Amino acid sequence: MIKIIRAIIIIFLLILLIKITVIAVKFLLLIIIAVLIFNAIKSLI
């Protein structure tokens, strides 16, 4: 019984970690795109 609870907790933590990683990656991509757009605009002016 304890093993099943432990397995559920581990799976839950893994899912949470994956979700956090996905959010972090999206955030980083947004920052990179913003920087690229900013540099493009700066080079045009």
TrEMBL record:
<keyword id="KW-0812">Transmembrane</keyword>
<keyword id="KW-1133">Transmembrane helix</keyword>
<protein>
    <submittedName>
        <fullName>Uncharacterized protein</fullName>
    </submittedName>
</protein>
<feature type="transmembrane region" description="Helical">
    <location>
        <begin position="7"/>
        <end position="38"/>
    </location>
</feature>
<keyword id="KW-0472">Membrane</keyword>
